[in-house]
Design a protein that fits this description.
Layout (H helix, E strand, L loop, with lengths): L15 E6 L4 H15 L3 E6 L16 H15 L4 E4 L12 H14 L3 E5 L14 H17 L7 H5 L10 E5 L6 E4 L4 H10 L1 H4 L4 H15 L8 E8 L2
Parallel strand pairs: 1-2, 1-4, 2-3, 4-5
Antiparallel strand pairs: 5-7, 6-7
The protein binds zinc ion.
Zinc ion (ZN) binds next to loops.
């Protein structure tokens, strides 16, 4: 199937959200305004980055510096929206991701430790009308791997049995998933109030964003999302697909 069902109404009793993204900056382009609202509402939010974005950048920064720079940029960007827990998986290079059993096991470990009610992640489905950006194969791989972790890996005690046997990590049921960057997102969040913090988060990704005028590109897009959702003129919005997973 190449499309999502209509979004569910988001859960109202969420205490913890785990954001899982392929690269530093994914969450900030797609969801930082929404994350800022969650933080304001007292929800605990943690970020998990699968790679350090070592294939990114646009200038002659020495390549071996890129992962360290981008890790620091993501931590600063998280801070701009009030998120302080930022972790990175080791062993996964930018541009090489597949929804492998290794990745599923490593993600299951994090999910069972953090026990999130909600996960926000990259879409496992392509938007065929736009091949670049959201359609990066790393995004699709992370979206697929996270979906496999939500069901069945994290909740099945017999999946990756060493996690329970050797690490004492009990099964966990994630109740809801939010996908960013997928086809026809239909759950819209008004981010007019948190847009300055989203811009600050994006500015923190200097290796990715300092060569362009991000607000000039982003604002019309966010305005269109808001207008299409019937929000008042001048509003800005991010859009997602929200699915119940329990
Ligand atoms: Zn990305």
């Amino acid at each position: 199937m190449s499309f999502f069902p209509p979004s569910a109404e988001p859960l109202v009793d969420v205490q913890r959200v785990l954001v899982v993204a392929a690269h530093p900056d994914d969450v900030d382009f797609g969801a930082a305004g929404t994350v800022a609202h969650w933080v304001d509402a007292g929800i605990e939010v943690a970020y998990l980055l699968v790679t350090r974005g070592d294939a990114g950048g646009f200038d002659d920064t020495p390549r071996e510096q890129m992962p360290l720079l981008r890790e620091a940029e993501q931590r600063a960007a998280a801070k701009a929206v009030g998120v302080t827990q930022v972790d990175f998986l080791d062993g996964y290079a930018d541009g090489t991701l597949t929804p492998s059993l290794d990745l599923r096991r490593d993600l299951t470990r994090v999910v069972r430790r953090y026990r999130p009610d909600r996960i926000l992640t990259n879409s496992p489905l392509r938007r065929w009308e736009r091949i670049a950006g959201p359609g990066h194969p790393d995004h699709l791989a992370v979206g697929e791997a996270v979906t496999c972790v939500i069901y069945p890996d994290a909740r099945n005690p017999f999946a990756f049995p060493g996690l329970l046997r050797d690490e004492g990590l009990e099964p966990w049921v994630v109740r809801e998933v939010w996908f960013q960057g997928g086809p026809d997102p239909d759950h819209v969040v008004d981010i007019t109030a948190t847009y300055p913090r989203k811009l600050a988060a994006l500015a923190a990704h200097a290796t990715q964003t300092s060569h362009e005028d991000v607000p000039a590109r982003l604002r019309p897009f966010l305005e269109t999302v808001a207008r299409n959702a019937g929000l008042p003129d001048g509003s800005l919005a991010e859009a997602f697909t929200v699915l119940r997973t329990a």
